[in-house]
Structures are given as structure tokens and as C-alpha cells.
Amino acid sequence: MTGTGRACAIRRLGPLLILACACACLAPGRAQAQGSASDSLRLTWTAPGDDGLVGTVSRYEARGSTSPIVTEVDYALATLLPGAPTPSPARSHQSMRVRGLAPGTVYWFCVRSVDEAGNWSGLSNVLRWDGLLDTSAPQAPENVAAVPQEEGKAVRVTWRPNTEGDLAGYAVFRAEDPDGPWAQTGRVAGDVNEWVDQRLPEAPVLSYQVAAFDEQGNLSARSRAVVVNVLEGAPTAWKLRAAYPNPVRIGGRERIPVAAPAAAVTTLEVVDGGGQRVRRLASVLSAPGLTEFEWDGRNEAGQLCAPGVYRAWLLADGVRQSIRLARLP
After folding, report:
1. Do 38 and 104 touch, CB atoms closer than 8 A?
2. Does residue 153 carry a pLDDT above 70?
3. Are 155 and 148 in contact (CB under 8 A)?
4. Whether residue 21 has pLDDT greater than 70
5. pLDDT at 212
6. What backbone torsions phi and psi does residue 79 show, to the nearest 5 degrees?
7. DSSP string spanning 150-167?
8. 307 vs 316, residue with greater confidence
9. 7: burial class by Cβ within 10 Å (0-12, 13-18, 19+)?
């Protein structure tokens, strides 16, 4: 269950009143509560500033009640909640755990802040919580990369961290073939965005995927697979490798491996026989390694491209390389 609304606080700067808005971590101007167990939830918001939208407030005060919070009197009668976080600079994501809730009971929550001079903000937006558990899975991790380590005795897998407030961690999956079968090989906490696989099977090429899970155990879809040649070592130059399967029939997907010697913004453009771009695929690589692009044979409008010969162009860090792609009826 999610409560929404604007969370605004009044800040005094000399004789001038400045309106500073505290918004939710997932969408500006919105607040959120996520249930992670039958008796607890997490409140999230974005930090207001000490002076308008800059600086850091001194502390937060959060209260909850089984009665609606409409006025400041209602707020004063509500229960003071322990565990409010230490304030971070303005616009930072903030959250706190609320425990000891009665399952199925409706609650109202509200937060306010105070600056170093003792000036209290007005009340935030009021969140109503109906006691429903969070069943929304996190987003699939992005920018996954894999690099051989220790002369082929290990593989370091990295990805860009997710931003969900109730993120609990990640699961890393491995396969000896991109089409599977896949098995979980690692699990890390939410503030860690890498995994070193030190128990490798006897296979020269391995594939990895990463999924995120929240505190309720909701598991995201898996990331795009990345393939690593264990015996090859870390890439020393950009290399667009041969696509597979190639050719492929209409409706099929082609995987296009890219060896990246550095973290960079990477673009893959698919053009037709006349040199006209039909699809642009982009990724922000978070670490050196071998990653894969996947083309489903569709153009920018989502329509299947006609059978024929195409080219995929790699554009990254001043590099321009291409390979041939073929699609059959």
C-alpha cells in the first residue's frame, strides 16, 4: 500500500519564509511507505534543506497513529516513533523502519524536521497505511559486467546499484551457456554491487545474470546476461565480437558481445542495407569487462524488420566498429 502527496516544510531565513518541499524517494513530490513484514514497514522521503533547498536539517521527528492526523494537535497526540535517521544533505534519500505494527490495522504517519536554530517545519504529507504487504519487485539490475580475475581462477561481476528504499540485496546467477540452465552462485547485501565468483566450473566461457530482491523477498527479473571468457583476462581494447546466432530467423534474437577495456557510455546502432539506422541500443558500462547487447529484430517503433542483411555499429570512447547481421524469413 502506498500513500502519496506533497510533503512541504516551512523554513525561516531571517524575515523571509522559504517553502522547502520534501518529496518521496521514487517520484518528486510523492511520499511512500512499503510493508516488508506483517508487523513492520519502511517510510521513505527526500531530505529538505536547512535553508530552503540547501543545507542539512538538524533532526527529524516521525509520529504514527491509529487515528487520522489532520492538524498539529493530532500530530502532537500521535506516538513518537524511534529510529528516525540522521539527516543527510538536501535532496538525499532518507528512510526509517517502523516496527511493532498490528497486522490489518490502519495507521497514519507524518514527519517533520527542525533546523539548528530550533525552527520546526510544518507537517509533511500524511501517509495512510492499510497494513498490506509490498508485493512489488525491484527493477532488474543494469550495467552488469564480468571480468576474469586471478589468471582465470575467479570472475568479478559488477552492476549499477538499484535505488529502491526497501532493497535488501542481489542474487547472482551463472550458466555455462547463455540459454541456460542457470543456477544461483552468489548473494550479497543491498549496499554491495559486486560479487567475486571463486568457485568456477571447468568451462572456458561463463554467463552471468543479476537479480535484485527487497526486504519482503520480492525478486526482480534478471538482468541482461553477460558472457566472459575466463581464460582471456580483462579486455585491453574495445572489440565488437561476432553475433550469435547469426543468421537468425524473423522473430529471433541476436546476441552481440562487446569487450570493454573501461567503464564508458556504449552505443550499438543497427543499420539496414542502405545505411539507415533502424535501432539504437545504449548502455552505461559500470566496469571493464565483456557485456552483451541483444537485438530482437525490431525497429525503434517496435515493428519487426524485414529479412535481409544489416550491420551493427559499436560507438564507444572514440571507437567505431561494425559486424554483419543477417535475418532470414
Report:
1. no
2. yes
3. yes
4. no
5. 95
6. -80, 130
7. GGGTEEEEEEEPP--TTE
8. 307
9. buried
270 with 317, same domain: the answer is: yes
CA 232 to each of CA 206, 212, 288: distance values in angstroms, whole numbers, following the listed order: 12, 29, 13
Grid coordinates belonging to 168: 535488501
Report, in angstroms and rounded to the nearest whole number, the Rg of the chain calculated over CA atoms. 25
Residues 77 and 184 in one domain: no
Question: φ, ψ for residue 177 (rounded to 5)?
Answer: -140, 140
23, 120: one domain: yes
| CATH number for 163 | 2.60.40.10
CA distance 172 to 314: 27
Query: Of 165, 197, 229, which residue constitutes the final position of a domain?
Result: 229
Question: CA-to-CA distance for 205 and 157, rounded, in angstroms?
Answer: 14
Q: For residues 83-95, give the mean pLDDT.
A: 87
Pairing of strands 127-129, 205-214: unpaired
In terms of Cα–Cα distance, which of 255, 257, 256 is closest to 235?
Answer: 257
- pTM (predicted TM-score): 0.47
Mean pLDDT confidence for 220-232: 86
- Examine the pLDDT at 34 and tell me if it is beyond 60: no
pLDDT 10s digits, 155-186: 999 999 998 877 889 999 999 988 889 999 99
- Mind listing the pLDDT tens digit for each residue in 256-294? 888 888 777 888 999 999 999 999 988 776 667 777 788
Residue-level pLDDT at 141: 93
Residues 11, 47, single domain; the answer is yes
- DSSP letters spanning 67-99: S---SHHHHHHSEEPS-PPPP-STT-EEEEEEE
**Domain C-terminal end among 206, 229, 252:** 229
- Structurally, the chain folds into a number of domains equal to 3
Residues 16 and 87 in one domain: yes
For residue 171, the enclosing domain spans 142-229
User: Do 266 and 285 meet the contact criterion of CB atoms below 8 Å apart?
Assistant: yes
Closest CA to 175 of 201, 149, 151: 201
**Residue 38 vs residues 103, 106, 126: alpha-carbon distances, Å:** 6, 13, 21
Q: Give the DSSP H/E element, type plus range, for residue 61.
A: strand 59-65
